[in-house]
Write the structure tokens for this entry.
Amino acid sequence: MTATHPTALAALDAEVVSCRRCPRLVAWRESVAELRRRAYADEPYWGRPLAGFGDAEARVVVLGLAPAAHGGNRTGRVFTGDRSGDWLYGALYRAGLANQPTSTHVGDGLELRGCRVTAAVRCAPPANRPTPEERDTCGPWLDAELQELAAASVIVALGGFAWDAGLRSLHRLGFAVPRPRPAFGHGREATLRRHATGHPLTLLGCYHVSQQNTFTGRLTEVMLDEVFGRALALAAR
């Protein structure tokens, strides 16, 4: 990969937030923003796609599924304003990848260091379930973002959907994907190399930070910290 150009990444982010390629997602994100949840009735909603957030020189990329209807779709920043974000950014802070453990709104002072957070699908989907077609329509945005993140050496995939989207994107970018395709698992690793350059990149699996996992104990803070500890070790190679 070539050197990262922050201006090119900023231009890409501007394109992402104007996307209207998926009619179902456009209708849903905008209806949520118009109707709003009672707890946020007096707040403006973003109601548009979300760009990635973080360091242009990131070595660790966190790949989620999609924005939450009343989280990122409300605040305008990925994993911000909901319980999932509390877990994620708390872990990034403990790992030294964030300057504070909370992410409540754009302009709250949060900065990421050596890390960028993004999503496989950029619009909030109904029931948190994008379709395969929507994943593939959004795929070029992920491809372009990973292409710009020249220093990236680790992708932490939050859940099976993100793992699969990451493999698909890396394949399109010219990385050799093993056959059979590596299956998702918490803590599972798949190191891929780019055909043209031999550049390695490791996909690291982690259970998603959704309440379905954190409330039930399927994912604990210790487990999450171990994943980011491993990501840092891989990125330091």
Q: What stands out?
A: The mean pLDDT is 96. The chain is about 40% helix and 10% strand.
